Structures are given as C-alpha cells and as structure tokens.
From TrEMBL:
MF (Gene Ontology): 3-oxoacyl-[acyl-carrier-protein] synthase activity; beta-ketoacyl-acyl-carrier-protein synthase III activity
Active site: C110, H249, N279
Primary role: Catalyzes the condensation reaction of fatty acid synthesis by the addition to an acyl acceptor of two carbons from malonyl-ACP. Catalyzes the first condensation reaction which initiates fatty acid synthesis and may therefore play a role in governing the total rate of fatty acid production. Possesses both acetoacetyl-ACP synthase and acetyl transacylase activities. Its substrate specificity determines the biosynthesis of branched-chain and/or straight-chain of fatty acids.
Gene3D superfamilies given in the database record: 3.40.47.10
Enzyme Commission code(s) on record: 2.3.1.180
Organism: Helicobacter mehlei
UniProt name for this protein: Beta-ketoacyl-[acyl-carrier-protein] synthase III
Ribosomal protein found in the keyword field: no
C-alpha cells in the first residue's frame, strides 16, 4: 500500500516574467501554451538528493516509521547528483543516515514515479521487503538551456516521496501498475551528451542540456496517455466515475485537459499543480498527491489514477488506494 506521501519545494519562486528579459516570450505566451504561471528553482549548491531527502524524511515520519525500518530506497531522477556514479539514491540514503540499506536509481524521466511504484510493489508483494521508500527528486534547472524557450519555461525543481508497505486490505492496496517504453522515439526528448564524449567540453556546451521535439511529444503524449488510462481502467473493470482523484504527470495543462475531456473526468477529480510548480518530472505526481494531502482532501481508501509519459520514451499508469492516515 501507499502508506504516506510528502514533498519538498525549494524556496526560489520564478514567475514567467523572469523569462521575458531572457527570451522572445511573454507570460501570456507561456500560459496559453502550457498553463504554467510559476515554478521553483533550487540554489546552485543544492542537488537533487538534497531536495529528495527533505521529502523522504517527512514521508518516513508520516508513515509512523523510523528510518531504520526502511528496507530499500528507490530514486527516480533525470537530474542526478553525478553523471555516472554514485547513484542519487546512494547519496540520498547517506543523507538520511542509512548505512546498509540497498539503494538504486531508476531512470525513466517523467514516468519515473510510476516505474518506482511498479518496482516497489513487486519487491513488497514478493515478501522480500516490508517498507520501500520511493523518491522522485529533480533539479531540472540544472539540465535546461535558458536560450531555448521551448524547454526552459516548462520545468521546475522539487521532490516527492512515498513509503510503500505491505497490506492485506485490498481497499488499501496498489491495485495495478502498468509500465511501458519505446526507445525508437528516444530523440523526441533527451540530453545529447554521452559518456563517450570528452570530459573537456566547454561549460556552456549545449550537449549537456535537455532537447525536445515539442509538437511530436505533445501529440504522442495525448494519444499514449488516453490508451494507457483506458487500458488500465478496462483491465480492472473500473469506470472513470469510480476514481476519486486523477493525478497525471504535470507536464502541460493542455495535455492534461485533453485527456480529462476525452475520459469525462470532472474538475473535482483532476489534481492540477502544473500552474504552480511547472513540470518537475519524476517528482510531479507525488508533489501533486502531497498537495491534496496537505489540503486535507486525500483520505484513506480514496482511489487514485496515476498516469505519466516521459523521455525514453516511457509511460505508465497505476490504480492506487491511499492507505495512509
């Protein structure tokens, strides 16, 4: 079951007017195409693990556990602390004060949280682990080209964390998770630099920043997400009316609204935070979940439909009963 949820947002709020002096853009242009009004950026000194550990500590506390009761740490991020190693999960575990707990990253970009959920569910249901900490932690600002208005206005920094635990109550369970990928579309959303390239690259070299075929991603995301949601609902004989909250990856308001309208979800069912936080990649779903938790709206037994699409290309969906207090 999903036993707890928490989030952490860095202090610096960046509104759309910030980009007007840097790019050929405006607040009106950004809001019309993305729905985004603000996003939050970490300080230069902060790493993804620094954001993640804040969310993780709160998630563990809300689960009523000690850190020593965490059996496995999984982190999803497209903005790791280090290019190759160690994993962000290892550095986050160290900052939590864990010494012997297995920890690993799962790289699925904006679909990262669904992949984390699928992996944690498998470990817990196998009986191998009792409590798995999953963390989506992103310093997206570290991989942005601030001369590219098609990408830099979209993303924000933040972290979200959940504790996944065993349960015998089906109404508190992670009912189903489906994940998929298609690497044939890898160049739709990627960072060009590879480890084969020389380390002696100019610091401003654009090979280190995110690239996206925006129109192609937009169209494919809507098509894929619609099918994904229809498939998981159909496989579990659940109608849209039975969903308490639809919590999609917060990438673009137009994408979310297209899926919402096709499936006839009400405004009350759909959780939206993209206007406030922008696209926080693997952190966006738990951050949105935490938003309704802290508003007192998320109750034990509520059925959540989660859905995400990201670089890889990757995508996934989940039906989750909230099992926390």
């Amino acid at each position: 079951m999903l036993k707890s949820v928490a989030a952490y947002v860095p202090d610096k709020c960046v509104d759309n007017s910030t980009f007007e002096g840097l790019l050929d853009t405006s607040d009106e242009w950004i809001q019309k195409r993305t729905g985004i009004k603000t996003r939050y950026f970490a300080t230069p000194e902060q790493k993804s693990s620094d954001l993640g550990v804040k969310a993780a500590q709160t998630a563990i506390e809300r689960a009523g556990l000690s850190k020593e009761e965490i059996d496995l740490v999984l982190v999803g991020t497209l903005s790791p602390d280090y290019l190759a190693m160690p994993s962000t999960a290892c550095t986050l575990s160290a900052k939590l004060g864990l010494e012997n707990t297995p920890s690993m990253d799962i790289v699925a970009a904006c679909s990262g949280f669904i992949y984390l959920l699928a992996t944690a569910k498998a470990f817990v249901e196998s009986g191998m682990y009792a409590h798995v900490l999953i963390v989506g932690a992103e310093k997206c600002s570290s991989v942005l080209d601030f001369e590219d208005r098609s990408t830099c206005v979209l993303f924000g920094d933040g972290a979200g964390a959940c504790v996944i635990a065993r349960t015998d109550n089906p109404k508190e369970s992670i009912l189903d998770v489906k994940i998929a990928s298609n690497g044939a579309y890898a160049d739709y959303l990627y960072t060009p630099r590879t480890l084969k390239q020389s380390a002696f690259i100019e610091s401003c070299d654009q090979s280190q920043t995110l690239r996206m075929k925006g129109n192609e991603v937009f169209k494919l995301a809507i098509k894929t997400l619609l099918k994904d949601v229809e498939d998981i609902l159909g496989a579990n004989n659940i109608s849209p009316e039975q969903i308490t909250y639809f919590i999609p990856h917060q990438a673009n308001l137009r994408i979310i609204q297209a899926v919402q309208n096709q499936l006839a979800f009400s405004q009350e069912q759909v959780v939206l935070t993209v206007q406030k936080y922008g696209n926080t990649s693997a952190a966006s779903i738990p951050m949105a979940m935490n938003e309704i938790y802290e508003q007192g709206k998320l109750k034990k037994g509520d059925l959540m439909l989660l859905d995400a699409f990201g670089g890889g290309l990757t995508w996934g969906s989940a039906l989750v009963y909230y099992g926390g207090d």
